[in-house]
UniProtKB/TrEMBL annotation:
GO terms for cellular component: membrane. It holds the Pfam family HPAT. GO terms for molecular function: glycosyltransferase activity. InterPro entries: HPAT-like, HPAT/SRGT1-like. Keywords: Glycosyltransferase, Membrane, Transferase, Transmembrane, Transmembrane helix. It is a single-pass membrane protein. The keyword Glycosyltransferase applies. It is found in: Membrane. Residues 10-282 form the Hydroxyproline O-arabinosyltransferase-like domain. The lineage of its organism: Eukaryota, Viridiplantae, Chlorophyta, core chlorophytes, Trebouxiophyceae. This is Peptidyl serine alpha-galactosyltransferase.
Length: 372
């Protein structure tokens, strides 16, 4: 994140919000603690096990961390706050005025499955909110916006929203009927809804009269189909939360990546590394190198752009790791070889993006015909 923040040319300062109990912090290895010296970090209390209800719900750490940070930080010099997840990569600068953010108007991603903003769930929790009569961020008549993923909000608005965000996250989580009202296809009866925090945010914003512009091209999940809109308005953030794959042009098998395969991965240890091209066996150093653009099917139009965006995730992650390894690790042949591959891939990828021509682009040819 810090690497891509700088590469994208994002104005402002980056702060890592780290939800961690004192006991867990004491047990962390020293290299993990040292990251707080590299990246400005605010440590927040962990509510994974809620101290009042004992509910196990790591998702609530997000609003708790934001509220704790705002309570202990002077952000008077910052007009806007951009809140994004750790499994996101920034590609382009985020400028509030360019996206339409203003006091009372936030910008976020559109999540149409949040049907609870317009059914009994909203009536159970925010009946006092006047229904919205526009369809900018959800259906007409809603009592909250169908948004999530990231938030760009005026700092004063965020201070007002944060405590309500916590409250409604707790309330929806404890609602015995919520599981069938949220729109979450993975919800089960008698289980608290996992996306309670998303409704906590939506209802909390509505309660404080903060509404949203739902931006449909700001973020993209690698592997999702792309089209002309992603050329006209390229994604500013890649959110690598799910499995994706790319097909190499002359190679029959796909290359796949899923962050969930790497729960034991150590991105802080210096060489020597035991590297593997099998992602299920890769545990340290660098992630498996993805295929370079030259191995992708260039004739597949927007599918080619989709695959470029997918491999950009690993190209950025590995380039970021190598930046740190070159700074803190002793020189070694393995570091030079593997990081040389990663850095060459990042350069090739930049060139591929620069030369990409959409399949439906209008091309102008000028012919000079001379006659004797």
């Amino acid at each position: 994140m810090a690497f891509s923040f700088r590469k994208a040319g994002q104005p402002g300062t980056l702060t890592r919000l780290l939800s961690c109990s004192e006991e867990a912090w004491a047990e962390l290895p020293e290299p993990d603690k040292a990251l707080s010296d590299d990246i400005p970090t605010h440590r927040c209390p962990s509510y994974s096990h809620h101290p009042r209800t004992a509910d196990f719900y790591p998702g609530i750490n997000k609003p708790v961390a934001v509220a704790d940070w705002l309570a202990h930080t002077d952000v008077a010099d910052e007009d806007y706050i951009l809140l994004i997840d750790a499994d996101m990569i920034m590609r382009r600068p985020v400028l509030p005025q360019e996206l339409g953010a203003a006091p009372g108007t936030a910008v976020s991603g559109f999540f149409g499955y949040m049907r609870g903003v317009d059914n009994e769930l909203a009536l159970r929790h925010v009946p006092e909110v006047e229904p919205r009569m526009d369809d900018v961020a959800g259906p007409v008549g809603r009592r909250g916006d169908q948004v999530g993923g990231f938030t760009l909000m005026q700092a004063g608005d965020m201070r007002r929203v944060a405590p309500w965000w916590i409250k409604y996250s707790e309330d929806v989580r404890a609602d015995p009927l919520a599981w069938n009202l949220t729109g979450d296809v993975y919800a089960h009866e008698d289980e608290p809804p996992w996306i309670a925090e998303m409704y906590g945010y939506s209802f909390g914003a509505a309660k404080t009269d903060v509404w949203h512009i739902a931006d449909r091209t700001f973020q993209l999940y690698p592997g999702y189909e792309v089209g002309p809109e992603h050329v006209q308005s390229p994604p500013k953030v890649l959110h690598y939360g799910i499995l994706w794959n790319v097909t190499r042009g002359a190679v029959p098998e796909d290359f796949q990546f899923d962050k969930h395969w790497f729960e034991q991965f150590d991105a802080l240890s210096c060489p020597p590394w035991q590297l593997s091209q099998d992602p299920h066996r890769s545990t340290q150093g660098l992630f498996p190198h993805p295929p370079p653009p030259s191995q992708l099917n260039r004739s597949s139009g927007y599918a080619y752009l989709r695959d470029l965006l997918s491999i950009e995730v690993l190209a950025t992650l590995n380039a970021a790791f190598c930046e740190r390894y070159r700074r803190v690790c002793p020189a070694s042949e393995q570091l030079e070889v593997e990081c040389g591959k990663a850095e060459a891939l990042a350069r090739e990828l930049d060139e591929a993006f620069a030369s990409f021509v959409p399949p439906d682009a209008c091309l102008l040819y000028v012919c000079d015909s001379l006659s004797n």
